[in-house]
Amino acid sequence: MTYGPLYLLTGLFAGVVAGLLGVGGGLINVPILDFLFRRQGVAADASFHLALGTSLAAIVFTAASAAWAHHRRGKVDVGFGWRAGVGGLAGAVLGGYVASLLPAATLKPAFAALLVAAAAELLRSQSVHAPGATGGAGKAYWIGALAGVVAGFFGIGGGIVAVPLLLWWARFDPPRAIATSTLMIVILGAGGAATYVFADWRETAGVPYAAGGVHLLALIFLAPAAIITAPVGAALGHRINPLRLKQLFALALLLVAGRFFWTLFERG
Hints:
Elements: H1 4-21, H2 26-39, H3 44-72, H4 78-100, H5 104-124, H6 137-154, H7 159-168, H8 174-199, E1 210-211, E2 214-215, H9 216-237, H10 242-263
Helix pairs in contact: 1-2, 1-3, 1-9, 2-3, 3-8, 3-9, 4-6, 4-8, 5-10, 6-7, 6-8, 7-8
């Protein structure tokens, strides 16, 4: 079976989600790539690690496309986003290294539980903050550090942590939080992906097209497709009511969490 078209479709869908929700696309990439790699005979642990690393590599391109689309609409807080991204680099490297040492049986339920917790908090709060003072560079670095650990550990852009923190702590409104998150994700994804390349080199040595924890063939299809559709998602995000956008973000988290909990009952 030729998997190129499936990688392409994954990238197209992930790009829309990344632009719309400010999450980088990892919520889509990780579960689908893990499934596709398993279908190709890759062992469970290697498959999930490969999905995480490939997702992070693709996210760099996806988030850059989404960030530019949001920036053209004046929604990205560039100074805050760059500080948070730089602050999260160390966290992304640390998270990626720790994840490379753990089995998929540990990573998958932890990932799903994190998504459920974030979704529950978003659905609990029905308010939408108005833009206010961000609290300066210190707050940006802390938000970036927390998002970076999650990005590296779970192979996502860190948006599932960055967006809620930007909403609650930095007092951004949803469109501004999502837009600024995409800029952070570019930096966090680069640091996390580099870590997976080196940390998983031996584990994926026998997997075709694998360069450490990044599947190059999947990346070649994923990245261009996501670059094309990320601006579409960004445009949609600016047309949706902020409260509905927040609820849509929570729903996306729950759907992906359900997929990962389901895999706990699968054999192998």
